[in-house]
Amino acid sequence: MTQKKTSTPVCAVFDIGKTNKKLLVFDQNYQVLKEIQEQLEERLDDDGYPSDDLLQLTNWIKNSFQTLAEETDFEIKGLNFSAYGASLVHLGANGKPVAALYNYLKNFPKPLYKEFIEKYGKDIFRETASPDLGMLNSGLQLYWLKKEKPAVFHQIRHSLHLPQYCSFLFSNQPVSEITSVGCHTLLWDFDKNDYHHWVEAEHLHAIQQKPMFSNSVFTDTATARAIGIGIHDSSSALVPYLKSFDEKFILLSTGTWAISLNPFSDEPLTASQLAKDCLCFLNFEGKPVKASRIFAGNEHERQTKHLADYFNVKVDYFKQVKFDRDLIMFLRNKYKQATPDTADVLLDCPFVERNINLFKSYEEAYHQFMLDLVAQQIASLKLAIGRTNVKKIFVDGGFSKNEIFMHLMADAFFNKQVFASEIAQASALGAALVIHEHWNSEPIPEQIISLKRYY
Question: Residue 266 has what DSSP assignment?
Answer without folding.
Answer: -
